[in-house]
Amino acid sequence: MIMESNPMREPVIDKVTVNVGVGSPGDRMDGIKAVMEKLAGSKFIETKARKRNPVFKLRVGLPIGLKTTLRGKKALDFLNRALDSRKRKISASYFDKLGNFSFGVKEYIDFPGAKYNPAVGVFGFDVCVTLKRRGKRVSERMRVPGKTGRKHLLTKEDGVEFAKSKLNAKMEEVL
């Protein structure tokens, strides 16, 4: 699909969510939190276990991960660096039917500007990108919400085209 000249139809980045699964609370989680806050330039909050699982020694309310949401210029900068760590290669299978996509960075030391911290070890994180079109707020606002027409919704093809043209991503084949 060719990008149209109508600015309301062009996809834009709504938010970039970064998730890190740590597994257990303690010094390692604090170290990972410090490293990720330095990489993302944003504060991370702890995610807690929702279910009890005695095999993994998890109980409800135990902190097991970290997450943050980036918007605007900060989101675009972080996304570009995350794509650089993957050599700008993503697969079409990473996209959902609404054009959003997610990918993982296997080791944080691949991320540009990251230095190895022996106290933390090596860990990876997930990057989830949510796309939207301008005008989406009409359906999300609390006072007098409207409906978004079917033609205004993003599709998987729109998301792939956005990643190729705006983010200079290269599509790779997944076997």
Describe the structure.
This protein has four helices and seven strands; from the N terminus they run βαββαβββααβ. The chain is an alpha+beta fold. The protein has a single domain (11-172), classed as Ribosomal protein L5 (50s Ribosomal Protein L5, Chain: A, 2-Layer Sandwich), CATH 3.30.1440. Strands 2-3-1-6-5 form a five-stranded antiparallel beta sheet. A two-stranded parallel sheet has the order 4-7. It is globular.
CATH superfamily heading: Ribosomal protein L5
Strand order of the largest sheet: 2-3-1-6-5
| Largest sheet descriptor | 5 strands, antiparallel
CATH hierarchy: architecture:
2-Layer Sandwich
Structural class: alpha+beta
Order of helices and strands: EHEEHEEEHHE
State the helical fraction.
10-25%
How many domains, as an integer?
Answer: 1
Mean pLDDT: 90
Shape: globular
Key descriptive features of the protein:
175 residues, two-stranded parallel sheet, 7 strands, five-stranded antiparallel sheet, 4 helices, alpha+beta, 50s Ribosomal Protein L5, Chain: A
